[in-house]
Specification:
Elements (H helix, E strand, L loop, with lengths): L2 H13 L2 H13 L10 H13 L3 E8 L2 E8 L8 E6 L18 E2 L2 E3 L7 H16 L8 E6 L7 H6 L7 E4 L7 E5 L1 E10 L3 E2 L9 H4 L1 H14 L11 E9 L5 E2 L2 E10 L5 H18 L4 E8 L6 E2 L5 H14 L5 E4 L5 H6 L4 E3 L14 E3 H19 L3
Parallel strand pairs: 3-6, 3-7, 7-17, 8-16
Antiparallel strand pairs: 1-2, 2-6, 4-5, 5-18, 8-15, 9-13, 9-14, 10-12, 11-13
Helix pairs in contact: 1-4, 1-11, 2-4, 2-11, 4-11, 7-8, 9-11
Bound molecules: zinc ion (ZN).
Length: 397
């Protein structure tokens, strides 16, 4: 770091406090946003008024009726790159097994508990805290800093799909819990629902029908073989792809031969695998089943919504170095480049050619679990790291 950069980092760092960032997170956890039952409006309203109070230009972008992305812009002095800090405002539903209040944001020791405390309201609180510190320190960025909260990441990523094409970002950082490591690759998912058709009949005369459950057997066997076959592929940061039938749905009554059976396939893709090519592979598996068993009627009926495909960023990109240096400076531990096993909104930035990394406080293993929590010390380090990324990526005076 240059002396000017060091001074700016000190000025911004002096504005940050663990208690302040934790209190923002408590507010966010108390603003319920379970997807789909709550929607994101409580969080969106909080984020919008927070950013307006700091003097950012704020707009709302309605994605689904009553569910809007928030876009805040801290206008830079000019001559720098525009960086987007993006994360999602929705959480998965509360679920069962909690011993702490899921929407209390209670702090016990160093842990702050609540649904979304790690995934991804921790990173969101750290973004807000970082922007507050930059503004409070009167540090002027050269490029614009965008803070975007999107809806619906946990199901179909409708928010990011709508947002990213409308943004003028040169660079993006997606806030997800990575334990402060810098993720530059992640897996993606594709979920076709296969329909196996038979012919319904009274179950006292099964020979008059075609049992769709039995007709599914060769299809299941073919996908078990397929899952074995694709395990040969691998990505240095994301490991191997996978395929598993996760839902099988058939039958209307105990005395009726089922005329239809639906199989949902959860296909996890690694960077380098292209959605259209994976669909073609699945079609080829089905064609092979039909060739060997001409009596089996099977097709892809539809695709379930997912967060999206796999994506990656070249490890040599300057944004990766900025993120590594910022995380290391904030935590005092050398940060590493990693891959994520799950999908995230990075894919939508990469699909538009925007260089993007994923970085955030919180342990990804906490995501979607009862008693989800985050270490408030790491949360504060996250806020400082984000501020340093903004200084490094946007430039400053
Ligand atoms: Zn998340």
């Amino acid at each position: 770091m240059s002396r000017v950069a060091e001074l700016a980092a000190e000025r911004v760092g002096a504005q940050l406090s663990e208690a302040r960032t934790a209190s923002i997170l408590t507010d966010l956890v108390r603003s319920r946003s379970q997807n789909p039952q709550d929607g994101e409006s409580a969080v969106a309203t909080y984020v919008a008024s927070f950013l307006e109070r700091l003097g950012l230009e704020v707009s709302m972008q309605e994605v689904i009726a009553g569910r809007a992305n928030v876009v805040g812009r801290l206008r830079g002095a000019g001559g720098g790159k525009t960086l987007a800090f993006n994360t999602h405002m929705d959480t998965v539903p509360q679920g069962t097994g909690w011993t702490h209040e899921p929407f209390g944001g209670e702090v016990v020791g160093r842990r702050l508990y609540g649904r979304g405390s790690a995934d991804a309201k921790g990173p969101l609180a750290a973004f807000l805290s970082a922007v507050e510190a930059i503004v409070g320190s009167q540090t002027h960025l050269r490029g614009d800093l965008l803070v975007t909260g999107v809806v619906d990441e946990e199901t179909g990523s409708a928010g990011a799909r709508t947002l990213v094409p409308t943004l003028d970002a040169d660079l993006a950082l997606v806030g997800e819990p990575t334990s402060m490591q810098v993720a530059i690759a992640h897996r993606g998912s594709l979920r076709p629902v296969l329909a196996v058709n038979g012919r319904t009949a009274h179950s006292s005369r099964p020979e008059q029908g075609v049992n769709a459950i039995y007709q599914s057997i060769p299809v299941l066997e073919a996908f078990m073989e397929y899952a074995e076959r694709i395990r040969d592929r691998s990505h240095p940061l994301c490991g191997s792809p996978s395929a598993a039938v996760t839902i099988m749905f058939a039958g209307v009554a105990e005395n009726v031969i089922p005329g239809r059976c639906e199989l949902t396939l959860d296909r996890r893709m690694i960077p380098g695998e292209v959605e259209a090519e994976v669909v073609a592979e699945i079609d080829a598996v089905l064609a092979d089943v039909r060739r060997r068993r001409p009596d089996v009627e099977v097709e892809i009926d539809r695709f379930l919504a997912t967060t999206g495909s796999a994506s990656e960023l070249d490890a040599d990109h300057p944004l990766v170095a900025i993120a590594l240096e910022s995380s290391t400076a904030a935590t005092g531990r050398q940060a590493a480049v990693v891959g994520l096993s799950g999908a995230c909104d990075m894919t939508h930035f990469r699909a538009r050619g925007v260089p993007c990394v994923v970085l955030g406080p919180g342990d990804g293993a906490q995501a979607h679990q009862p008693d989800e929590h985050i270490d408030v010390h790491e949360l504060a380090q996250g806020a400082f790291a984000y501020a340093l990324v903004a200084l490094g990526a946007c430039g400053h005076e």
